Amino acid sequence: MDQAGSATRARIAAAGAGAAMTFSTGILAYGIVDSSIPASVGGGLAGLAAAGMMGLAKLRAWTVDTSAERRQLADSVRQAQNEETRYVAAQGAQAEEHRRRLRDIEGDRVRQEQHFIAAKAAMEADFEARREALIIESMATGIRLHLAGLLNAPTEAVEAKILRLPGQQQPVRERATAHPADQAPEAVRDRGVARP
Question: For 15-34, what is the HEC assignment?
């Protein structure tokens, strides 16, 4: 409101100076037509005063009137507020996106944990089922072997049967019990073993 009042006062001063200039021009013209020196000098001085007053009013308006700068400042403030609003909105959107990603990550972690717990329970149940089946099968096999008498210790010594392969002169048992020291020295030398 102060700016508007200042502009109004400047207009009133300019209008008053214009009126004074018109009046002084009239007095000057009267003094010239009437050949009256005091009227001519008075009209001229009043005209100079009116011109000075107009010049001062314009100078004051030029130095005091900041309406263009105020408009520019208001535009700059409006742009800064718009940019701040956009920045705050972008920051809010980024924070919301971050929260959404954290929720998604937490949901994925919970789903994976539930999946692993279910898979572990299924594997344990499968293991227990197989373990029980193996225990039952091994117990049944043990009982069959016991009933067949295969788990009892032998009561009599069973002589091993020696099978002769075709082309063998000595039985396997005799060959296994024969010692190189019992052989002839020539046979030992032929095999590359020295006698002690």
Answer: HHHHHHHHHHHHHHHHHHHH
Query: How crowded is the C-beta side of 125, counted as CA atoms within 13 Å?
Result: 6
Cβ contacts of residue 77 below 8 Å, gap of 6+? none
- Residue whose tokens read 């063998």: 168
Report the distance separating Cα 75 and Cα 164, nearest Å.
Answer: 118
Q: How does pLDDT run across 29-62, given as a tens digit for each residue? A: 777 778 778 877 877 787 788 788 888 877 877 7
- Is 0.85 surpassed by the pTM of this model? no
Longest distance between any two alpha carbons in the chain, whole Å: 181
Give me the residue spans of the domains in the chain: 2-65, 71-148
Question: Which residue stretches of 149-194 are H helix?
Answer: 172-177, 185-190
- pLDDT, one tens digit per residue, over 167-195 is 766 554 444 555 555 555 555 555 555 54
Give the tokens for residue 72. Answer: 């520019």
